[in-house]
Write a structure and sequence with these properties.
single chain, alpha/beta, Rossmann fold, 5-stranded parallel β-sheet, 10 helices
Length: about 200
């Protein structure tokens, strides 16, 4: 199986941007959110299971998961969040593992927003955390999603704390200063991961 780097960070920290920079260097890319979106598309087995557990009102007219309605529920109801995770996390893990095994890249960046929360840490060879100041995080999410400050704070509160993530990190990328500073941090880590993958 390919050398796997678990990439995580809070909402709005810049995980996708960082992952794409690694991919541009030749790393493989596995995105748990993208897998989750595919699993909750029309006619997917997870959708039927979600409808059974939560009710048909959480399924959109096209047969996919109503992500907005579900998000509003799970970020205010911890039991509902755990129920949804119990349905999706095993399926996401299974598909993530399949993609890692199938990858022919020298190493794979596995983007898992809930890496710390989901207990997926043990399947990764290394943990990379993308970090930024909380106010930057909040303003980014508000700017791109149209959510209110209180909605963003509720999402942040439902995730692992910044301290928890940093305590689990093998490597940290600071994303407070734009793309140039990101690239300057990604390049040496790319070389490090190539070395670890080759010698591991």
């Amino acid at each position: 199986m390919a050398f796997a780097v678990g990439l995580t960070g809070g909402i709005g920290s810049g995980k996708t941007t960082v992952a794409n920079l690694f991919a541009a260097q030749g790393a493989g890319l596995v995105d748990a959110d993208e897998i989750s979106r595919r699993l909750t598309a029309p006619a997917q087995p997870a959708v039927a299971e979600i409808a059974r557990k939560f009710g048909a009102q959480f399924i959109a007219a096209d047969g996919s998961l109503d992500r907005t309605r579900m998000r509003n529920l799970v970020f205010t109801n911890a039991t509902a969040r755990k129920d949804l995770e119990a349905i999706l996390h095993p399926l996401v893990r299974q598909e993530s593992t399949r993609q890692i095994v199938a990858s022919t890249a020298p190493y794979v960046i596995v983007v898992v927003p809930l890496l710390i929360e989901s207990g997926a840490r043990g399947r990764m060879d290394r943990i990379l955390v993308v970090d930024c100041a909380p106010e930057i995080q909040i303003s980014r999410v508000m700017g791109r999603s149209g959510l209110s400050r209180s909605e963003v704070l509720a999402i942040i509160a439902a995730q692992a704390s910044r301290r928890q993530r940093l305590s689990e990190a093998d490597d940290v990328i600071h994303n407070d200063d734009g793309l140039e500073m990101l690239s300057a941090q990604v390049n040496p880590l790319h070389l490090r991961y190539l070395g670890l993958a080759t010698n591991g």
